Prior knowledge:
Elements: E1 2-6, E2 10-13, E3 20-24, H1 27-38, E4 42-47, E5 56-62, H2 64-68, E6 75-82, H3 89-103, E7 107-117, H4 122-133, E8 138-145, E9 160-167, E10 181-182, E11 192-195, E12 201-207, E13 210-215, E14 219-220, E15 225-226, H5 248-258, E16 264-267, H6 274-281, E17 285-290, H7 293-306, E18 310-313, E19 325-333, E20 336-345, E21 366-375, E22 378-386, E23 397-400, E24 407-414, E25 419-425
Parallel strand pairs: 2-22, 3-17, 3-18, 4-7, 4-16, 8-15, 16-17
Antiparallel strand pairs: 1-25, 2-18, 5-6, 7-9, 8-9, 10-14, 11-12, 12-13, 19-20, 20-23, 21-22, 21-24, 24-25
Amino acid sequence: MAWRNVHPAWEEMGPGGAQSVFLRGDAAQTAPALAEHWQGRVQTLYLDPPFMSGGRYSFSQRVGAAGWQGDMAARIRRATYADRWSEGSVGYLAMLRAILTGALPLLREDGSLFVHVDWRASAHVRLLLDELLGSGRFVNEIIWAYQSGGRSKEHFARKHDSIFYYAKGKRPAFYPEAVGVPRGPQRRNHLRRGEDENGRVYFAITVGGKEYRYYEDERVAPSDVWTDIPILQQRDPQRTGYDTQKPLALMERLILATTRPGDAVCDLFSGSGTTAEAAARLGRIALAGDQDGDALHLYRRRLGLLGASFRLGGLPAWEWDAHGRVRIGCQRQGDAWSFALEEVALDAPEIPAPPPSLLPDTLHPVDAWSAGFLEGDVYRALAFAARTAKEPYLPRRLTASLPEGARPAVAFTDVLGRTFYWAAFPD
Ligand SMILES: C[S@@+](CC[C@H](N)C(=O)[O-])C[C@H]1O[C@@H](n2cnc3c(N)ncnc32)[C@H](O)[C@@H]1O
């Protein structure tokens, strides 16, 4: 058998029946592409677009076991997106208008839209949403307040984002009981504090001879000001290295409040894949898109490690570098196939070498790999491994049960963000 570098149009992962999908590309195109199947079927659409910040953002890729063990020198930083607009707010709003126009038809009649921005774009975006959906469809401006970084001496520190919540139709699905938060200990005006026979603390008021009790530990729906979800700290284990990554807890609250298990959640500015991971963890369908190749791989990584099923489209076709060295093998063992990725070597000076103190690692330039088979223009991955902080070394063997007559195939993603697909052909 000889292994040849192939270029499938689609990658599928997991046991099958994948509904979750990631499309790489400009959201102005991915929204209408998703609509071919999902028009009027998405329950919640969350958009975390650029904020008009003027910044340039990047992804910090951990390299090899050292990178995953926390060695800051074992990293490669590369650009992801620039939040710069040639005509200022005019260009920014033209981008967002085009994307929203393509994306709104995805929503169900009882669906919800969340658009996440900050002080720079919020006034513009609120007016744009009023225009596109109607001001009557405004539900909330969620203030996500956090503590981070320094304090300005010239003005009050800017420590919140705005998440605009609009309904597609008149009656959006909303499940406040799914996102209850403890009422908390704050003393309330005119209420007296008490403790019942079980030691539970409450605040009470008597009106017309009747006592109303509000228990401190009772769960109530959150208000539109959220102060209980911290932004990700530098060392947070959730951190993927993707700038502007949002916490899972934020996405979980939005998803739980507006969807049921089995519903579809969509994020067209997927970034590190937070919405998709939260959706998959909660048993929702995770539809996503992003123009960035690292965003595609992070979706693959985060959902692959959960064992979820999904499809990836818009795959870049990378040509294997003639200077590289790769050794792949596979063997049938009864019903299963055993795949081996023995070695991947790249002649790329930008990849930091492993420190000599570490165990030898013939897969040093590889971040993740999978094994499965090639069917037409679809690569189906049935087994997947990625480096993590807990398991910084990659297994060199994966097993998978292939359908009779299937063409064995393997894919790996290197630390330069390229995924190479290989299929076995007769010699
Ligand atoms: C603020 S980040 C999203 C972060 C994400 N919510 C997370 O938790 O990681 C914005 C993302 O939008 C993507 N993006 C910017 N313009 C885009 C466009 N026109 N089409 C698709 N993606 C775009 C960027 O590549 C970036 O990943």
